[in-house]
Structure formats: structure tokens, C-alpha cells
């Protein structure tokens, strides 16, 4: 057990690419926690996808021993938190497990929207915050301007911000010293009943479910019988360890300490991030406040390109679910796409990460249908239903009104692109809440329907600002609006996978864009094909794909017979990439591309 | 196979022809994917020996047959010495019983050197030439990599018409930067030249050609889109009909009775022997239909034959289903269409009724119990028509 005043627990708050992982690597390296030969870039991002995308998805932790200038050796626990809004709940839990944060800001880029959201979380959790200006050695670095920006935008005193270059190691000793001198030691009572927070959990192929805990009060020992206060399940602790970042067994964890344990738990689903863990006997009475389970907010269908892969997809989803309790799935059948799964995600990035992992780690080719949010249907009989899939929309005569989720979006953008951003937000039914400037950067806050953001808002944002805008959001509330289900009919047949919920005022424009796009994407057939968008029985947009006129081989003589026959058969095989729908073959890419529209 | 079950059809009803491949050209055209090679020196004596040996070998297998047609294709067969053509035709005459109306076609380039050989070919027994005119203006000819000029082409057509009984010309259209009006004028001129057979091919970018490599690098601009090429195709049918040379096959037009009898053998599923590098054949021997193929490399073929071996690769026996597919694919190219009775006897089943009905509904085919033909519109969409017919078969599921 470590003395409380020799412990410092902290996290690092930063925007993507501002150097969070590099700084973490440097702290680990400089304290000799990991031998130089075992060091690999971005030590804490263990998934390939995390390293590739430069993002952190799961919370990670490392215990660092640091001999400070005062002659005493401190235990520093760094929790590396997910940086993305999709994982906001995990972030908030991680923040509650530590007492301070390093706020890392790129000295040339300045504060971004994501930084802002996370720093507010840290302030909410009562953190002491040490501002750190990174990439100070870059020619474009403007430390004074950025300090001013931190003070203007965040309202934080940046006068003693530490200037560093995580890449070259410049300023790292100052950061270590500041952690000890400027961040508070944890509080806690070793003699009180055990009270530990479940910070994170993940599935390990050898150990089963691994649980990361922060001890608030009491002492946790190997062999203890512990109870999860939310689920009331009781487990015996098999293994107790700290992460350096490799596991090192330990006999006990005292107040203020962070470690992991295993207890023969089979599924991550059996654990709840934010839950309070106490002893089975003589446990504490009141759990830690603020527990809430993570709720999926974005849904989409995942279908195998090759129908024969359905079982493989089912298996892959089951395996992924072992490690990610926030991702939900249930079987779905689509007339167009066959058997697949309707899956729920914490946000768009979460969706992309899961899809990438399914495709990469399980070698599956997937069709992703249009992402949809959860609408609340207020039925005339008073019942409130969740609508996860536009295809399940009941007859409108039974529906009184529909609520949709709204978000509060914060966008930071160089002022030259402000006009484009405002137009984009207005086009997406946004309501402006705030507009302020920090130097030449504008910060806009909008109230937007989540449904308008899940399509291609982020792509559009990046393209109209040449990548200079940053964006973050929190779900704010459910609110009523005039929403309708728009169906798409190809050759007079509705294609369920293309139906979507839209605002009535925007339906014509959406429908028109959609049928025009489909006309480009569906190849000509031997007959003409009407492509229609409809609300109920009323057609609101129509295009006609004219019949193919010419498809014949110019030359075919005796010497060509064999070759031309093979060619004809090859063309037949090429059709596998198409989905047969009635008499029409729709290429798979149409299901995704049709939903990405301009403007 | 009884005459009743096949509607009285087998290979004999379509005839028996002999195809000879001469694999050499003076230069390779950028659009051509045929088996042709540029060689600096060719020992025509060796080639004569080889062709005669192969004729003897095939004749031994097909003894007693009546021979309906001979076709010298290439490459550029008009690079053959007339004496070589004469020796080959003499040996052919000794090997089979020539039909009374034996058709002997030779593909010729309309260059000056070739024109001088026309008399010699006629004397050797060639009674039909197919002239590779390709275009009637010099700029287009250069873009197509042709060595002759449009003046030479006109002169060649005139002389050929004096020397041979029958003359056909080839043109390539839907070329780069060619408008509908351009093609209308060019075709009108071509039809005015008075040949009784004309082959009109839309330019196709074939794999392995210079054009294909250029196309891949977007260097081949001005090619027509689907609508323009369809308009050109329709214009072509109309103008040829009006000139009294209706289309009897997708790309072939003739005064009735002047059709290429040799090519009809291919499309009507007759038997044909293929001799020379890369030549294909279809021979019905001992009740089995065999696909034959010669090695593509001229050197390898010559070496094999001169070494006393057969100038042929192992033969493949075509199953009834394969024959049925091939028959449909070839016969539907013809305006006269296909015999469904013959198809049925080979496939062991009818064509899928739903697909037939749907295609008929779309106006792409006309079918009775016994026969089926593509309409003018359907011929233009033949690949799609065939895919629809073949995909819906029981045996294809």
C-alpha cells in the first residue's frame, strides 16, 4: 500500500494529433518504466485501429515511479482516456478516477473543439489542470498567442504553462515535477469499508474479463470476495495487479491507488463502467454517485456482402461484444440485403471503429446501411416507442408525434470558413446558440438534430473548411419535430434499406438528391427503371433510368466462340457484386453512396 | 440424334468449311487483338510444306466430306505468294469433294503491292476477297495504324471487282471524334462503291492492344458514348437496308444470296477445320463434337508440323450443354435467329419461359415454339439478351 501523499493520479486532455500519446510515451520512457528496447510508439494505444487513427478508444493506464527533486519517490498513475465524444461517458468515469489533468495544446494549432469538451469534463470532475504547450520547437509555434487563447476560450490561467516538445523530450522533466508539485494527492481512508470505482473493463483471451479500479476507501486484496453494487454479483478476486504498463502482481491496493483485477468474469457485459465495488461482507452502504449505463445513440444495419458469411458475422459480433458492452446488436432481415444485424453505437466514430474491426480482424466484407438515430414515437394510445430502424415505422395514423434527439455541437473554425459552417448548420436544421471569437478562430455552438449529423455532416464539415474545423457534441434532449418516413422505390418496389426518416420540409430536397444519385449509381438495364422517393403513397421525386441501348460484341467468328463464351460467363460472375432487387440489380456501393449527399 | 428431335438439324445442315490462318502482317494495327505477328523474313516454302501436311492430316479424319468453303484469314493473307495459295488450293481440291459452289475467300489489304497479286490469287482459285478498308479518309486510316491510303483503297476495290466474282469490304466505325453525320457520309460513300457485301464493325477496345493501353491512360479521346454508338448502329442498319444490303448478322450486310457462306457455317454451328497458328476448329467426329485449337506462336506451330507432329493442342470434347450455349450465342447473332428445336435437343430442356416472355415483352426477341430471333433492337442488346436467357436456365442454377 502506498502512502497517500506519495500518489498522484492524472489524465491527459488533448485534441487528436496534439501529442497526447507521444507525451505519455515520453513520461513512461524518461522514468524508466519501460526499458528502451521494449518501447514502441504510442505505448498505450494497444489496438491497431487506435494506432492507425491516432485515437484512443479504451481507457488505458500506466503506473510510473518517479523520484522527485524533493528526494522522495512518487507513484504516478496516468489514465489515458478516450479523446472522442462517442466515448464521453468513459471519459467522464476516467476523469472521476483521478485528481488532475495535463491539458496538452499544440502550440501552433491552438485549442480545438474536442479539447474544450474534455477540459470541461475535467473541470466538472474537480481537477487541478496544468496547461502544457506542445510542439514548441516547430517554426509555426506561437506560445504566447496560444496561452492567450487558453485564457480566453477556456478561462484557465495559462501564465505558468509548460512549454515542451514531446517528440524531442524537451520540457519533460518539468512536466514530471509539475505533476508532483501542482497536482493534489488523492484522499481516502484505508480503514473505511472498501469503496472502489470500476473505471473500465475489457476482455483478455487468457485472463477473461479484466477490471480496472480506482480505490476510494478501504483496501482490496487478492482473494477478497467483492460485490458489484449495481448488478449485485459477487466475485472472488483471482489476480490483483498494477500496469507498468505490463501487469505486475501486487498483494493489495490501498486508497488512491489504481490497478486491475480478474475474478472469473466471462463477459464484459457483466460489468458496468462507473459501478462501485465493495466487499461482500462489511461493505460500504452508499455507492459512488453518477452511475449511468452507456446508451447507443446511432444505429445501422450491417450485412455481409456474401450471404454465406452471415454465420461468420454473427460469431464476430459476439466476440466483439465480449469486449464492448456499449455496442448492441440484434438480427435483422432486409428484403434487399438479406440477413444481417441492426447494431447500436455510441456515435459515428464508434460505428466506424466497430465496422473496421469486423472487416479487418474477422476478414468480413460488410454493407453498412444508412446510420439512423433513435426516434421516440409517441403513439396515439399514449405508448412511447423507440424507433431504431426506419423500416419499422408504423402507419402514421397511429402516431401522435415524433421526437428526435438533438445535440449541442461546438465547432471551432478559422474565421474565413465561418460563413460556410453557418450555412452547413442552417441547412441541417441547426439553431445557433452562440458565436464567439478567440483571435482569428471562431467558436460556434449550434443546436442540431443528431439525425442530420449522422449522415455526412463531419465529412462536409471537413471539406468546406479544408480540414481546419474541429467539431464536438453532446446529446442534449429529445424534441418534437415534423418527421416523416421517406421510402425509395426502384422499379415500383420499395427498397427497405434505403428508407429514411427526414424532416417534412426537407423531404423534397432529400428525395430529389437521392433519386438523382441513384440514377447515377444503378447501371442501365434492358428496360427503363423509374426511381422514386415517396412519403406514404405520395411520390415526391422521380427520375427515370433509361434502358440500355447497346451491348453487343462487334466481332464473333469461329476463332472467338470459346473466348466470347467465357466472357459472357465472366460477366455473369461479375454480377455477384450486385444485389438483385425485383428485376433490378443494384450495386452494393449504391446503398452507402446514395446517402452521402452534397449540401 | 434423329432428324425429328432436332428439327432436322445437325452440322451437315450448316456445311463444312476450312479456315487457314496466315499469322503475319507488315505492321500491327493498334486496335487488333488477332493472332498476328510482324516478321522480317518468312520462308514461304517451309510454310507451304507445313500447310500441306496439316491439310493431309485433317483430310484423313474427314474423308468423303463435301467441302463448302475455304477462308484464308490472318494476319494479312495477301502477303502470301499467289503460288503458295495455289499449292494449298490444289491440295484441298485433291483432299475433299469441293461443292459445286465452293466459296474461296481471302482477306486482303488494299495496298499497292497486294493489288498486284489479285490476278494471281484469282488464277489460283480464290473467288471472293474481303478487303480491310477500315476507313475512307487518310486521317482516320493513320489513327487506325493502317498503311494504305484512301486512294489506294478505292483503286483496290475497283480492281478487285474486276478480278473476283465477289468482293466484300470491312469498315470500322464509332471511331475517335467521329460524329453521326461523319459516319453517315462515309457509309453512303462506301455503299456507293457497289460491293455486294459489307462488314461494319464498331471500334472495340480489346484487351492486350495498343488502344487498350492508351484507353487505360485516357489517351484515347473522342470515343462515342453508348447513345451515340447506338444511334450509329441504328443508322447503319437503316442505310444498308435502303441500299439493298440488309444486315444478316450483327456486323455483316449483304445483298440476299451474297452472304459470306464461310462465316454462316460458324454462326449456324456447322463443322470447320482450323489450320495454322492459333486457328480454332469444330469437328464432329464419331458422334462427338470436338473443339480444336492450334498453338498461337507461328514458330512453335511451324516447328511442330515440320517435326512431324500435329499442329494442334489436345482437343476438347464439347458437352451437349456447352454446344447448346455456343449454338445460342452464335445463331442469335443472325437475323434469321436460332432453331429452338436444335437448342432443346442439345440442352435437354427448353429455354426458361419467363426469360423468353420477358425479353419478348421488351421487344428484344420474337419466339415461336420452333424458332427464336432477336429483333433489330434485341440484336443491339445481344449480350444482355443472352445473359438473361442463359442465367435463367435450370442447369445454370
Give the number of DSSP strands of chain B.
17
Poorly predicted runs of chain A are none
What amount of the residues of chain A lies in strands? 25-35%
Note the beta-strand portion of chain B.
Answer: 15-25%
Biggest sheet record of chain A = 8 strands, antiparallel
- Which oligomeric form is depicted? heterodimer
Radius of gyration of chain B: 21 Å
**Low-confidence regions of chain B:** 1-5
Biggest β-sheet strands, sense, barrel of chain B? 9 strands, mixed
C-alpha geometry of chain A? globular
Our measurement of the CA-to-CA distance between the termini of chain A, rounded to an integer number of angstroms, reads: 59 Å
Polypeptide structure, described:
The complex is a heterodimer of chains A (599) and B (397). Chain A has 599 residues and is α+β, with helices and mostly antiparallel strands. In chain A, strands 11-10-16-7-8-15-12-13 form an eight-stranded antiparallel sheet, covered by helices on one side. In chain A, a hairpin with a 3-residue loop joins strand 7 and strand 8. Chain A starts with 6 loop residues before the first strand and ends in a 6-residue tail after the last helix. The mean pLDDT of chain A is 86. Chain B has helices spanning 11-14, 44-61, 82-95, 112-115, 118-124, 138-143, 150-163, 180-191, 210-216, 226-242, 261-267, 298-306, 320-331, 340-347, 353-361, 376-380, 382-391; strands at 16-22, 24-25, 37-38, 66-74, 97-108, 128-134, 166-173, 197-202, 247-249, 252-254, 271-275, 280-285, 288-293, 316-317, 338-339, 365-367, 371-374. Chain B is built from 17 helices and 17 strands. Chain B is globular and about 60 Å long. Chain B is α/β, with parallel strands linked by helices. The relative contact order of chain B is 0.12. The A-B interface holds A 524, 526-527, 547-559, 561-562, 564-565, 568, 571-572, 583 and B 19, 201-204, 226-227, 229-230, 233, 250-251, 263, 265-266, 272, 274, 278-282, 291, 293, 322, 325-326, 329-330, 333, 358-359, 362, 364, 379-388, 390-391.
Amino acid at each position: 500500500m502506498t502512502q497517500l501523499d506519495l500518489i498522484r493520479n492524472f489524465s491527459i486532455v488533448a485534441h487528436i494529433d496534439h501529442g497526447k500519446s507521444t507525451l505519455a510515451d515520453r513520461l513512461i520512457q524518461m522514468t524508466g518504466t519501460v526499458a528502451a528496447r521494449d518501447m514502441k510508439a504510442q505505448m498505450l494505444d494497444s489496438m491497431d485501429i487506435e494506432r492507425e487513427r491516432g485515437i484512443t478508444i479504451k481507457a488505458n493506464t500506466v503506473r510510473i515511479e518517479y523520484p522527485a527533486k524533493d528526494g522522495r519517490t512518487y507513484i504516478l498513475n496516468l489514465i489515458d482516456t478516450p479523446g472522442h465524444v462517442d466515448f464521453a461517458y468513459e471519459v467522464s468515469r476516467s476523469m472521476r478516477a483521478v485528481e488532475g489533468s495535463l491539458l496538452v495544446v499544440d502550440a501552433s494549432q491552438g485549442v480545438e473543439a474536442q479539447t474544450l469538451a474534455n477540459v470541461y469534463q475535467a473541470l466538472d470532475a474537480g481537477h487541478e489542470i496544468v496547461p502544457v504547450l506542445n510542439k514548441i520547437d516547430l517554426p509555426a509555434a506561437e506560445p504566447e498567442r496560444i496561452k492567450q487563447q487558453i485564457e480566453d476560450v477556456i478561462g484557465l490561467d495559462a501564465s505558468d504553462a509548460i512549454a515542451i516538445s514531446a517528440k524531442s523530450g524537451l520540457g519533460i522533466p518539468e512536466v514530471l515535477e509539475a505533476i508532483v508539485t501542482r497536482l493534489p494527492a488523492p484522499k481516502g481512508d484505508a480503514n473505511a469499508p472498501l469503496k472502489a470505482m470500476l473505471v473500465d473493463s475489457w476482455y483478455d483471451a487468457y485472463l477473461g474479463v479484466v477490471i480496472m479500479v480506482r480505490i476510494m476507501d478501504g483496501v482490496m486484496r487478492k482473494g477478497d470476495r467483492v460485490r458489484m453494487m449495481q448488478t449485485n454479483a459477487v466475485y472472488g478476486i483471482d489476480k490483483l495487479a498494477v500496469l507498468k504498463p505490463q501487469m505486475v502482481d501486487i498483494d493489495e491496493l490501498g486508497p488512491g491507488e489504481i490497478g486491475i483485477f480478474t475474478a472469473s468474469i466471462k463477459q464484459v457485459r457483466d460489468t458496468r463502467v462507473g459501478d462501485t465495488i465493495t466487499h461482500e461482507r462489511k461493505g460500504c452502504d452508499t455507492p459512488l454517485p453518477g452511475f449511468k449505463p452507456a446508451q447507443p445513440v446511432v444505429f445501422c444495419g450491417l450485412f455481409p456482402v456474401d450471404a454465406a458469411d452471415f454465420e461468420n458475422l454473427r460469431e464476430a459480433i459476439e466476440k466483439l461484444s465480449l469486449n464492448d458492452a456499449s455496442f448492441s446488436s440484434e438480427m435483422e432481415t432486409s428484403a434487399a440485403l438479406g440477413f444481417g444485424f441492426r447494431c447500436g453505437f455510441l456515435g459515428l466514430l464508434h460505428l466506424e471503429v466497430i465496422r473496421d474491426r469486423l472487416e479487418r480482424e474477422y476478414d468480413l466484407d460488410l454493407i453498412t446501411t444508412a446510420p439512423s438515430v433513435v426516434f421516440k414515437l409517441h403513439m396515439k394510445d399514449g405508448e412511447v416507442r423507440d424507433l431504431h430502424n426506419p423500416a419499422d415505422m408504423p402507419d402514421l395514423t397511429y402516431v401522435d408525434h415524433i421526437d428526435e434527439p438533438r445535440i449541442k455541437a461546438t465547432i471551432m473554425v478559422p474565421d474565413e470558413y465561418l460563413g460556410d459552417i453557418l450555412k452547413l448548420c442552417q441547412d441541417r436544421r441547426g439553431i445557433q446558440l452562440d458565436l464567439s471569437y478567440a483571435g482569428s478562430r471562431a467558436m460556434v455552438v449550434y443546436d442540431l438534430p443528431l439525425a442530420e449529423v449522422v449522415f455526412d455532416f463531419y465529412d462536409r464539415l471537413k471539406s468546406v473548411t479544408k480540414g481546419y474545423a474541429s467539431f464536438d457534441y453532446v446529446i442534449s434532449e429529445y424534441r418534437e419535430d415534423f418527421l416523416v418516413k421517406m421510402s425509395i422505390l426502384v422499379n415500383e418496389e420499395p427498397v427497405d434499406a434505403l428508407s429514411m426518416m427526414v424532416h417534412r420540409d426537407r423531404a423534397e430536397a432529400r428525395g430529389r438528391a437521392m433519386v438523382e444519385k441513384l440514377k447515377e449509381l444503378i447501371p442501365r438495364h434492358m428496360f427503363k427503371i423509374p426511381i422514386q422517393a415517396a412519403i406514404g403513397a405520395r411520390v415526391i421525386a422521380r427520375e427515370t433510368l433509361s434502358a440500355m441501348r447497346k451491348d453487343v460484341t462487334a466481332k464473333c467468328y469461329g476463332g472467338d466462340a470459346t473466348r466470347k463464351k467465357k466472357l459472357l460467363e465472366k460477366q455473369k460472375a461479375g454480377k455477384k457484386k450486385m444485389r438483385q432487387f425485383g428485376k433490378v440489380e443494384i450495386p452494393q456501393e449504391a446503398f452507402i453512396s446514395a446517402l452521402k449527399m452534397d449540401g | 440424334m434423329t432428324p425429328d428431335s432436332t428439327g432436322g438439324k445437325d452440322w451437315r445442315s450448316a456445311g463444312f468449311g476450312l479456315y487457314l490462318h496466315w499469322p503475319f502482317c507488315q505492321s500491327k494495327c493498334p486496335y487488333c487483338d488477332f493472332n498476328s505477328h510482324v516478321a522480317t523474313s518468312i520462308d514461304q516454302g517451309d510454310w507451304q510444306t507445313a500447310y500441306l501436311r496439316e491439310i493431309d492430316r485433317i483430310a484423313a479424319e474427314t474423308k468423303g466430306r463435301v467441302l463448302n468453303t475455304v477462308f484464308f484469314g490472318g494476319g494479312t493473307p495477301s502477303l502470301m505468294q499467289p503460288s503458295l495459295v495455289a499449292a494449298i488450293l490444289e491440295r484441298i481440291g485433291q483432299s475433299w469433294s469441293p461443292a459445286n459452289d465452293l466459296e474461296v475467300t481471302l482477306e486482303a489489304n488494299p495496298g499497292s503491292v497486294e493489288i498486284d497479286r489479285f490476278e494471281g490469287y484469282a488464277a489460283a482459285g480464290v473467288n471472293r476477297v474481303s478487303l480491310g478498308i477500315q476507313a475512307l479518309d487518310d486521317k482516320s486510316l493513320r489513327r487506325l495504324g493502317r498503311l494504305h491510303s484512301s486512294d489506294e483503297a478505292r483503286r483496290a476495290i475497283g480492281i478487285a471487282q474486276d478480278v473476283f466474282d465477289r468482293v466484300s469490304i470491312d469498315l470500322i466505325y464509332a471511331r475517335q471524334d467521329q460524329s453521326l453525320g461523319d459516319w453517315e457520309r462515309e457509309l453512303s460513300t462506301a455503299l456507293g462503291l457497289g460491293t455486294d457485301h459489307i462488314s461494319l464493325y464498331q471500334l472495340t477496345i480489346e484487351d492486350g492492344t495498343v488502344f487498350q493501353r492508351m484507353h487505360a491512360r485516357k489517351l484515347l479521346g473522342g470515343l462515342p458514348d453508348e447513345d451515340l454508338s447506338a444511334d450509329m448502329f441504328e443508322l447503319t442498319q437503316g442505310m444498308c437496308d435502303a441500299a439493298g444490303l440488309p444486315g444478316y448478322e450483327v456486323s455483316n450486310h449483304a445483298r440476299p444470296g451474297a452472304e459470306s457462306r464461310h462465316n454462316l457455317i460458324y454462326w449456324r454451328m456447322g463443322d470447320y477445320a482450323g489450320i495454322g497458328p492459333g486457328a480454332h476448329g469444330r469437328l464432329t467426329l464419331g458422334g462427338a463434337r470436338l473443339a480444336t485449337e492450334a498453338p498461337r506462336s507461328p514458330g512453335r506451330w511451324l516447328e511442330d508440323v515440320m517435326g512431324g507432329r500435329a499442329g494442334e493442342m489436345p482437343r476438347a470434347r464439347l458437352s451437349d450443354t456447352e454446344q447448346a450455349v455456343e449454338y445460342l450465342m452464335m445463331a442469335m447473332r443472325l437475323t434469321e435467329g436460332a432453331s429452338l428445336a436444335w437448342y432443346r435437343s442439345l440442352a435437354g430442356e427448353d429455354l426458361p419461359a419467363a426469360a423468353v416472355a420477358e425479353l419478348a415483352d421488351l421487344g428484344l426477341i420474337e419466339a415461336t415454339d420452333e424458332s427464336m430471333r432477336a429483333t433489330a433492337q434485341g440484336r443491339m442488346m445481344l449480350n444482355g439478351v443472352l445473359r438473361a436467357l442463359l442465367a435463367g436456365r435450370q442447369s445454370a442454377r
